[in-house]
Amino acid sequence: MRCFTVLGPSQTGKTTLVAKLASLEGTPRKSASPYGSSLTEFDFKDEAWCAVDTPGANEALALAQDALLVSDACILCISPTPDDAVLAAPYLRAIEASSTPCVVFINRMDEPRGRLRDVIAALQTYSNHPLVLRQVPIREGDTIVGSCDLISERAWRYREGQPSALIELPQDAAEREHEARAEMLEQLSEFDDWLLEELIEDREPASDTLFAISSRILKENRVIPVLFGAASHGNGIMRLMKALRHEAPPATALRTRLATSSGAEEAALSAASFHAYHKANVGKTVLVRALADGLKQGASLGGATLGPLQEAGSGKPISGSVQPGGVFAALKSDHLPAPALLTQSASVEPPDWTTPPTPMLERILVPGSERDETKLSATLAKLAETDRGLKVMQEEGTGAALICAQGPVHLRELRKTLSEVFRVEVSDRAPNPIYRETISKPSDVRYRHRKQTGGAGQFADVQLSVRPNERGQGFTFGESVKGGTVPRNYIPAVEAGAREAMEKGPLGFQVIDVDVTLTDGQYHSVDSSDFAFRAAGKMGVKQALSQASAVLMQPVVRVEIHIPSIFSGGIVTLVSSMRGQVLGFDRDENAKGWDIFRALVPGGVLDELGRSLRSATQGIGHFSKTFDHFEELYGKEADTIINAHGAGAQAH
Predict the structure, then answer these.
(1) What confidence tier does 323 reach under pLDDT thresholds 50, 70, 90?
(2) Where is the Translation elongation factor EFG/EF2 domain positioned along the sequence (predicted)?
(3) Which residues, at least 6 apart from 134, have a Cβ–Cβ distance to it below 8 Å?
């Protein structure tokens, strides 16, 4: 079986394209996962094929990356509008990182909104591989009625619902065809010395030889050929399928490619998993592509035994072994991660290029009932296993379930899966911002803790000096007690009490960057104890903090913003509008046509940054973040935060 992925932005007709390709001969067999990916098996020219159709939302890019892990080749389906080329940039980036041979298909050419060469030029901005146009359109007025293949120089006229008809190349298209063919030959000659020599000698190379050269160059992943058509009318579909059949690498090449990119031993690779999902009453299903012989129910894969196997498209049980190259669904094989490279005895981490973008949207999931609360933690752990674009954590302070999703669409799909598959109902809210407080001036206090009850009492007297520390120094404790006024065995208890006092200061937040020094005190030979000195230390420090001019501290986060260069002009303004500071930017060395901006922004604006970035970059831009430092915050903004999240909120 040969396998390819169809990927690209939303609204480019990917699903229609797959349906038309799969229906060229016979009846296709299709299955879909709850995450929006679908898998179609079909036959073409006595060969078995499998097409993986991935969602077009940028938040689902991880699904496309995982599908490339098991693909012999891929089809990048794009719009005929030059301005839309940037929407394909994330997919070109993933394709090039994966070294998957690619064919670009410009779809919906029945409604052209720009010149073909402008579309290719715009797309070339984001591709290190040369884009080689392999066809030219035949037009009547503004309507494309057919195409001419630049290698065979045969012209075809589209016919609705029927195969295209071979025609004589119209005279008015001949000059454009000759010009485009010369350009194509020049591009191909860069990768073939024989062809270069033929062109220099002004000899016309034979079509069969050119097809062989173009096939070799695609198998070696040297260029990206460009074809076009209109899937909804069946135009250009047969030509695209024949290009895949003759020019895409065979299934045996995938094993070598995966071993090279991951560092795994090629001979040991038995399979690769690329997608997993949960279904009600079924459990976990893992989609796997076989890379070696002998995979069947009961065989060893990934360090444990395979459960029942099904045909990925039809869902029919598989009784025998899966042939190398075959795609199957593994049930009751919960030990298999996805994506992963699989040997008989272990699962191997997939190559780094499969790592999804850093999730930008943080949300607290609020269970709808006590039963849902009990199930939520274990259920989220299961979902995180099958969705690497999802991160599951706990909120600081409350321990509530905190998830990091790729964006609002990803969050919506997650809640839908929780409800429909696991019967867990949740709502979501923004997490509580992480604020701190410190002091801006020193304070000295004397605090006496005394309680008299029946029997032994409690007595401890401490004299404390509380001072601001340098930023980032944290809490420090020291003592300068002389003459044994506080016995040494009680000093650790004073420090423990002081640390407790740091948990919540006068503004209602954790206190940082403070030094506490025990300078003097008194004790009682009977009534003093660790407990008493701990209580004195805690209450004494609390009193000192209230006198030391508390200051609110907000988190400042360092972000790396990844965007196509076409959007770079607006990023400085966007960051500045959020009281952020741009530190600089560079061209992204790993992705042509992309920039990386580095900036410092207040932690409280990350949600807004995610929304604004999606809006400013048509959903393409993304950022990763790391905590940098805390800084003081004053005035009305500080008062608002204290009233909403600190002492003001607790007082109401």
Answers:
(1) very high
(2) 432-549
(3) 149, 150, 151, 184, 214, 225, 226, 227, 243
Kindly state whether residues 485 and 415 are assigned to the same domain. Answer: no
Q: What total number of domains does the chain contain?
A: 5
Whether 63 is in a domain gets the answer: yes
393-399 contacts, C-beta under 8 A, 24 or more apart? 395/364, 395/431, 395/432, 396/434, 397/432, 398/432
Residues 466 and 498 in one domain: yes
The DSSP code for 130 is P
Q: H-helix or E-strand containing 246?
A: helix 237-247
DSSP state of 603: G
Tally DSSP H helices, then E strands, for the chain: 17, 34
Structure tokens at 29: 């067999």
pLDDT one-digit tens code per residue, 3-25: 999 999 999 999 999 999 999 99
Does 434 reside within a domain? no
What CA–CA distance (Å, rounded) separates 313 from 40?
A: 6
| End position of a domain, from candidates 232, 249, 266 | 249
Question: What DSSP element (H or E) covers 534?
Answer: helix 530-546
What confidence tens digit (pLDDT) does each residue in 361-394 have?
999 999 999 898 889 999 999 999 889 899 999 8
Please tell me what DSSP assigns to residue 313: T
Can you tell me the distance from the alpha carbon of 96 to that of 98, in angstroms, rounded to the nearest whole number?
A: 5
Hey, what are 121's tokens? Answer: 């030029």
- For residue 262, name the pLDDT band (cuts at 50, 70, 90): confident
Selection from 88, 48, 107, 40 nearest residue 67 by Cα: 40
Q: Containing domain of residue 579, as a range?
A: 553-646
* Residues 71 and 208 occupy one common structural domain: yes
Reference 227, options 219, 235, 98, 154; nearest CA is 235
Distance separating alpha carbons of residues 296 and 294, to the nearest angstrom: 6
Task: Give DSSP secondary structure letters for 352-397.
Answer: GGGPPPPP-EEEEEEESSHHHHHHHHHHHHHHHHH-TT-EEEE-TT
Q: Write the CATH number for 464.
A: 3.30.230.10
Element (H, E) at 95: helix 89-98
What's the rounded Cα separation, in Å, for the pair 338 and 348? 10
Residue 106 in any domain: the answer is yes
**In angstroms, rounded to a whole number, what is the distance separating the alpha carbons of residues 496 and 500?**
6
Residues 492 and 595 in one domain: no
Domain boundary among 308, 323, 354: 354
The Cα–Cα gap between 17 and 13 comes to: 6
204 and 57 within one domain: yes
DSSP 155: E
Asked if the structure places residue 38 within a domain, the reply is yes
CB 291 within 8 A of CB 271: yes
Query: Exposed e or buried b for every residue in 184-195, given b needs 16+ CB within 10 A?
Result: bbebbbebbeeb
Q: Are residues 66 and 164 in the same domain?
A: yes
Q: Are residues 267 and 391 in the same domain?
A: no
Cα–Cα dist 299/291, whole Å: 14
Query: What average pLDDT does the segment 259-278 reach?
Result: 90
